[in-house]
Amino acid sequence: MTDSGNATSEVRDRLWEAVLDGDAHQAAAVLHRGLDAGLDKETLLLDTVGGVQEKVGLEWAANRITVAQEHAATAVNERAVTALLPPAPAADGPERGRSRGRVTVACVDGEWHAFPARLVTEVLQLRGWQVDYLGPQLPGSHLIAHLHHTRADAALLSSSLPARLPAAHAMIAACQAVGVPVMAGGRAFGLDGRYARACGADRWAPDARAAAAALEAGMAAPDPTAARQAVDDLPHLADQEYTMVVKSRPQLIERTLADLDKHLPAMELYTDVQRERTAEDYAFIVDFLATALYVDDAGLFTDFLLWTAEVLQARSVSARCLPSGLNLLARQLHDFPRATAMLRGGAAAVAARFDSDPGDTT
Amino acid sequence: MTTPSPDFSLVVTAVPDALIVEVAGDLDRGTGEKLIRTVAERLTPDTAFRRLRLDFRHLTWIDSMGLSALLMVHHHADTAGVGLRLDRRPDFLERLLDLTGTFTYLTGIPRAAGEVPDAGAG
Amino acid sequence: MDRDGGIVEANTAARALLPAAAGGDRPPEDLPDWLADAHRRMSGGLGVTRLDALSGAIGERLFEAYPTPSTDGDVVWWLIDDTERRQAEEILRSEQERAAILSEVSSTLLSSLNVAHCTEATARLAACHLADAAVLVTPAQGPCFSLTYARAGGPVTQVLRAIEPATVPGLAEALQGLPPIPTQWIDPGDIPPWAIPEGFAGPVGSVIVTPLPGRGTADGALILLRPGTARAFSESEDGFARLFAARAGAALSAARLYTEQAGITATLIRDLLPPQLGGVHGVEYAGRYRPARDDERVGGDFYDVHPGADPSRESLVVLGDVAGKGLDAAVLTGKIRNSLHTLLPLSHDHEYVLNLLNAALLRSRHSRFVTLVLASARRRGVRVRLRLTSAGHPPPLVVRGDGRVEESGTYGDLVGAMPTVSARTVETVLAPGETCLLYTDGITEARGGPLGGELYGSERLKRDLTGCAGMPAEALVERVHMLAAQWLGQGRHDDMAVVAISAPRAGPLAVVNGEGRPGKTRKRQGRSS
User: Fold this and answer.
1) Across all residues in chain C, what is the average pLDDT?
2) Domain check: are A40 and A13 in the same one?
3) What SS3 state is found at A262?
4) For the CA atoms of A190, A191, A196, A202, what is the dihedral angle to 10 degrees?
5) Domains of chain C: residue spans and CATH
6) What ipTM was predicted for this assembly?
7) Which of A25, A72, A142 is opposite residue C470, by nearest beta carbon?
C-alpha cells in the first residue's frame, strides 16, 4: 500500500509541475510513466489527476496562481486524460447489451467546471458502463431530449456552484419526470450531500468511486406519476423571499453600492474598475443569499462569506467593509425575516473571524 | 422570440419635399419590419418626396436586423428615386455604420467628408 | 324463528323467497348459512343482543338482515333486499379502479417520449391491471414484428422476430385497424406458442386481442391472456381493454412521432453544427458556440477552419455572423460556408474572396447580409504568421505574451448588401503562447452585469483578456464564453461564437530530459517583445 501510495504521490507531484508549466506533452508522459510503474488507470485518474485538479482550485483561492494559469492547468489536465484514455467509441449503437448499463453524465445548466464530470465519465467507462458525456453549459432541454432518445438507466448531474442549485433542482425534477433516476455530485450539493437531498436527487455521491459503487448497487427508476414542483420539495419557498431577492437583484446591488459610498469614505477613491469589481462581489453575495434562501440554509451563506473574505485577504483586499455591506443589504430586506437573519448572522461571522467592527448601520 | 421594445415608436412627418420618420426605441427584428412597411407604403414610384430623412435622436439600440432594415429602407428609397439621410445618429449607430462600411452606401455621402452626427435636425 | 332455527311465522314475501321455510322444514334447508349462523349466535344463550350489520346472498339476490329478539327466545328477522344498491356500488368501485388505472397509464406513458420505454410500460401495465399476461405486437421491418412480453409481477422482455399475424385469431385484423373480434369468439386453443410469454401458468383460458390506435392506422396490437384456471374475460373487460389500448396507442404514436422528428432534425442540422477544432499544421485552433436560444443548437453565427494542403500552406479560418437567429439564419450560414469552401483556392486574396461571396449573395434572393472575419494562418518556425481581414465585423484581438491586448487594424464592408466590398487586410505574427481571438458581437453585446442592462462591450473584453496571457486556445475560448455568460446572468442574448488561433507554447521536443521549460521561454519572449 505504501509503495503504491508513494508512487501515486510522486506521479502527482510530477503532474503538478507539468500542469503548472502548461505542458500537455509532459503531463501525458508523466501519466504514462505512472502506468508503466504499475498504477492502474482509475488510481491515476482520481488520485493523481483529480488530486492535481483539486490543488489547482486551492492554489487559485490562495492567489498563488492566476485565473489564466487555472484555466491553462485544467486544459492541460484534460488533454493528459485524453492521452491516457483515448475517446470511447460513439455512444449510440448496439453496445448496450455488452455493457453494465447506459448512463448520462451532464453538468448542471450554467456550470463551467466540467472536469469532475469528465473524471466520473472516464471512471465509469473503465468499469464497463456505457456513458454519454454531455459536457458543460448544457441547456436543460437538451439533457431531457437526450434522455428521451437514449433511455439512460440513470443521469449523473455535476455542479460545483451552489448558486446553480435552483437550476440543479429543476433539472433533477425534469429527469425524474421522464422516469430517469438522478445521482447528484459535486461541491454545490454540500460536503455531506444535504442539498442533493433537498433537491430531491435519488442519490448523492461524494466522489467518482462512490458514484460507481452506487450505480453498481442499482438505482430504481422514479415513479413518473409523482411529478412535482419546486415548492413541493422546499415548502419554505412559499414565503417568496427567494423570488423577491432574485427579482430585485440589480436594485439591491445598486442601492448597496450607493449606501456604501455614503458610509465608507474610502469608496470615493475607487477607480471605475474597482467599483465594478465591488459591484461584482455584491452580485455574488446576493446570488449566494438567494441560494441560501432557496435551500433554507444559513450555513451555506456564512461559509460563502468566510471563503470570500479569505479570497479577498489573499488578494490584499481587506474584508473589513464586508460586514457593513451585509448590514446595508439587511436593511433593504428588513421585511424578509429569513434574509435579514442570514445577512446579520453572516456579518457577525465575518466580523468575528477577521476581528473587525460588525459595522451595524441600522 | 424578439418582442418589440415597448417604447418603440415611429413618428412620420411630411414637409414639402421630404418625408421625415423619427425612430424611437430599439431597432431590431420586430421593429425593423415596421419601419420598412412604414416607408414602403409612403414611397410609391410616383412620389413627390425628394428625400427620406430618418431621425435617430431617440434611437436606443440597433442590432444587425435593424441594420438589415435600414438596407431595405435604402432599397425602397432608391427604387422610388428618393435620397436617404440618417440624422442625429447616436454613437452606437455611428459605430455600427463605421464597422460595416454602410454609411456611404446608405446616404451617398463619402465618409471622409462625413457629416457630423448631430447635423440636419430636420 | 325459534331457538332451533324453525320458522314460526313468515310473511308472503319471505315465503316467496324461502319456499322450504314456508314448508315447515326444521331447520329449513334453503336457509342460507350466513343467516343460520347469525340466528344461532343470537338465540344460543350467549347474551348477544346486537349484531353488526349483517348481509349476504339468498339465491341471486343480496339482503341485509336485521334481528329483533323477543323475550321468549324467538327472533324476528327483517330481510331487506339490497341487490340494486350493492350492484351500483360494485360498478362504482370498478369504475373508480379503472379511472385510476387509466390515470396511471396516462401519466406513466406521457412521461416518456422513448418508444422502447413506452412499449415496455404498456405491456407491463396491461399485464398488471388487465390480465395475467400481455403481449404487445408492433410492426418492425418487413415480416418482422417487435414482440413485448409481460407477466403480472414478472420481467418484461422484448424480442424482434418474424411472425405470421394470421396465426392469432383477430391479430391480423387488429393490426389493420379493423374492429376487434369479441373475446368470446376467440378459441384459446388457437393461440400459438410464440404469443404466450415464457412462464405463463398453464394453458390459456381466455384471450383479448385489441388494436392500438395510432396515427390513422393501428400502430400495433395488444394480446391479453388469462390461464384456464382463472375467470374468463367478461364483455366489460373487453371494452376496458379497448379503452386502455386507445390511451396507450396515443402515447406510443406521440413517442414515435417525436423520435421521427428528432431524427429528421438531427440529420438536417448535422452539417450546420459548428465543427470540432484542434491543432492543424503546428497551429492550435479552438472554437465554441452558444446559440441565442438554449433550445436551439444552431443559429446565425458560424466558424470553420480549412486546413492548408500541407504545413507550408496557409489554413483559412472563417468566423461570421448572419443577421437573424435560429434555424432560419443557420440555413443561410450553411450556404455561406459552402460558398467559402469552394472559394478556398483564392484565399490568398481575402478581398477578392469577399467580393465573390458578395456577388453570390446578391444573386440569391436573401435580403440578409453577413459580417465575417477571414484569417489565414501559417506556422513559421515557432511563430505563426497571420493575415486578417474583417468584413463589417469586430476586428480580431491579439493577446500578447506580456498581457497586452491589441486590436488588429483590419476593417471592411459587410457582405451581401452592397454592389462591391472593400476591405483592408493586415498581417501580424504570433510568438509562442500568443493568441488571436475572433469573436462575434453576441459576446460584446451581452447585456447584464451586476447592475443589469449594461453592455459587456469590447473595452471590458480587452481588459479581461489582459489576464489571459499564455492560455491555451481552448482555455481562452472557454474563458471568454464564461465571462460573457457571467455578465449575462439569466438575461437573453444573441448567438455567441469565439475562435482562438494560437502559436503553441510547448513543441513536442520540449519534454526531452524534462528540460526546455516552455513557460520560462514564453516569459522571456514576453518581456523582450
Assistant:
1) 85
2) yes
3) helix
4) 170
5) 12-81 (no CATH), 103-267 (3.30.450.40), 281-528 (3.60.40.10)
6) 0.84
7) A72
**Cα-flanking dihedrals φ and ψ of residue A22, to 5°?**
70, 30
Neighbours of B35 (CB within 10 A): 20
Please state the domain count of chain A: 3
Instruction: For residues C426 and C375, give the distance between their C-alpha atoms in angstroms, rounded to a whole number.
Output: 10
As for how many domains chain B has, the answer is 1
- Describe the strand order of the beta sheet including C315-322 as a list of residue ranges: C301-306, C315-322, C370-380, C383-391, C423-430, C411-412
- Cα separation values, A294 from A167, B112, C59, C293, Å: 11, 58, 65, 26
Residue B95, domain extent = 9-107
Q: What is the pLDDT of residues A287-340, one digit of tens each?
A: 999 999 999 999 999 999 998 888 888 777 767 788 889 999 999 999 999 999
Per residue in A216-254, pLDDT (tens digit) is 999 988 876 667 788 888 889 998 999 999 999 999 999
Residue A227 C-alpha cell reads as 411529478
User: In the beta sheet, which residues pair with residue C137?
Assistant: C147, C221
Same domain assignment for residues A74 and A124:
no
Rounded-to-integer distance, Cα A182 and Cα A144, Å: 12
**Site from A15, A71, A144, A280 to mutate, C interface, most C CB atoms within 10 angstroms:** A71
**Cα–Cα distance for residue pair A239/C40, rounded to 1 Å:** 65
Chains that touch C (3 or more CB pairs under 8 A): A, B
CB A184 within 8 A of CB A172: yes
Cell 376467440 found at: C186
Residue A123 counted as domain residue: yes
Q: Are C15 and C21 in contact, with CB atoms under 8 Å apart?
A: yes
What is residue C305's three-state secondary structure?
strand
∠ at Cα A270 (A265, A274), nearest 5°? 135
Task: Write A288-291 long-range contacts (CB < 8 A, 24+).
Answer: A288/A162, A288/A163, A289/A245, A289/A329, A289/A339, A289/A342, A289/A343, A290/A163, A290/A166, A290/A242, A290/A245, A290/A246, A290/A249, A291/A162, A291/A163, A291/A165, A291/A166
**Which residue does chain A place closest to C110, by CA atoms?**
A178
Phi first, then psi, for residue C216 (nearest 5°) are: 85, -60
Q: CA of A31 to nearest chain C CA: how many angstroms apart?
A: 13
Q: Quote the cell numbers at residue A315.
A: 488578494
- Does residue A137 lie in a domain region? yes
- Beta-carbon contacts of A324 under 8 Å, excluding residues fewer than 6 positions away, are A260, A263, A264, A347, A359, A361
- Picking from A185, A201, A233, the residue at the C-terminal end of a domain is A233
Chain A contact set for C479 (CB, 8 A) = 67-68, 71
What CATH number is given to the structural domain containing B100?
3.30.750.24
Q: Per the omega criterion (within 30 degrees of 0), is the bond before C396 cis?
A: no
Spatial contact of C387 and C352, defined as CB atoms under 8 Å apart = no
Domain holding A16: CATH number?
Answer: 1.10.1240.10
Q: Tell me if C326 and B100 make a contact (CB, 8 A cut-off).
A: no
Q: Check whether residue A226 and residue A257 sit in a common domain.
A: no
Task: Give the nearest partner residue to C392 out of B63, B72, B101, using CB atoms.
Answer: B101
Q: Round to whole Å and give the CA distance between C133 and C140.
A: 22
Q: Select the residue of B68, B101, B102 nearest C323 (Cβ to Cβ).
A: B68
Shared-domain flag, residues A245 and A325: yes
Nearest CA in chain C to A148: C114
Residue of B64, B99, B101 with shortest CB distance to C323: B64
A225 and A135 within one domain:
yes
Helix runs in B1-122, H state only: 29-42, 64-79, 91-100, 103-107
**Domain containing A52: what range?**
2-84
CB contact C324 to B (< 8 Å): yes
pLDDT 10s digits, A187-212: 999 999 999 999 999 999 999 999 99
